[in-house]
Amino acid sequence: MSYGRMRTEDFDYTLPPELIAQHPAPERDASRLLVLERETGRISHQTFRDFPLWLRAGDLLVLNDSRVIPARLRAVNARTGGAFEVLLLEENAPDDWWAMMRPGRRARVGTRLDFLDRNRAPTAISAIVREINAEGHRRLLFQGAGGVWDALEKIGEPPLPPYIQRDDGSWLSEDFERYQTVFARAPGSVAAPTAGLHFTPEILDEIRRRNVQIATITLHVGPGTFAPVKTSHVENHIMHEERFYISPDTAAAVEAALREGRRVIAAGTTTLRALESAAAASGRISAGPARTRLFVYPPFNFRVAGALLTNFHLPRSTLLMLVCAFADPGRSGGRQMVLSAYAEAVARRYRFFSYGDAMLII
Q: I need a labelling partner for 337 at 20 to 30 A (CA). Which of 44, 138, 241, 313 fits?
């Protein structure tokens, strides 16, 4: 497939800083919902409680059930006492993790870290920096009673993205609850699949009452989901890799929906990437564990998703590019359509990014 050369700057837009949501809506389903109809470009403004009204009997809604782990840790250099912030990325083996560290330049191979609890008090958990990869990530070998997984529940914090500011720990309880979907099951994400944050048990029940089938995939979201594209041309960007799993039941449900001409609705860009990565040209969906570096930008031919629920994404991000591709499948007109919708969302004071409002593209 030939994508042509698209400039990264074409996916830029102006966002007033005060529209970056610092806290979730008081109730999950009280978020606003902008609906973009692809065929006509028509835009509707509602709340997420109206989301089930846009579904049809026979639709298949696919959710990402990955669970966010409390991956942000605080540590000190055992020799100098210098402070570090650690973000766990992926487990290689028990107590063996890749991590991002700040300030990274002080975390040389051989550095020992002593970890602190949420009150900044010392703990029995420590780690040694064993390796540094090409991306600057550190490989940490942990030691201490109970291992890292047990310790995370005591010392870890929600891995909020950098644009959400927290001056102290007074919002920890809110973030532990709300930076997590109500259907989260499989631990492994270090960023929330944010489109799923709007769902409540009541909304899910209403969806089922409308004879809409619900299935799940698991894609563990990495920090690269927030990374801006820094190359001048889109196709030169190196996409981050993420792990996902599609169960045989979900694969069969998706295949049946496609075969019968029923709509598959992806709740989130993570769900869409997993489904499109697993899809063969024949319409078969590969079940089982896999990894994806799929980079979706205009033009892109979608094999699975017929509708997309998502949040409002950062300028120049791969997620915004994916949304633009979805707005005009197989062509390049979606960029202007989506950026126009974003401009209207800004004018109407929608809330943006992880804790922000939702957008449905149908």
A: 241
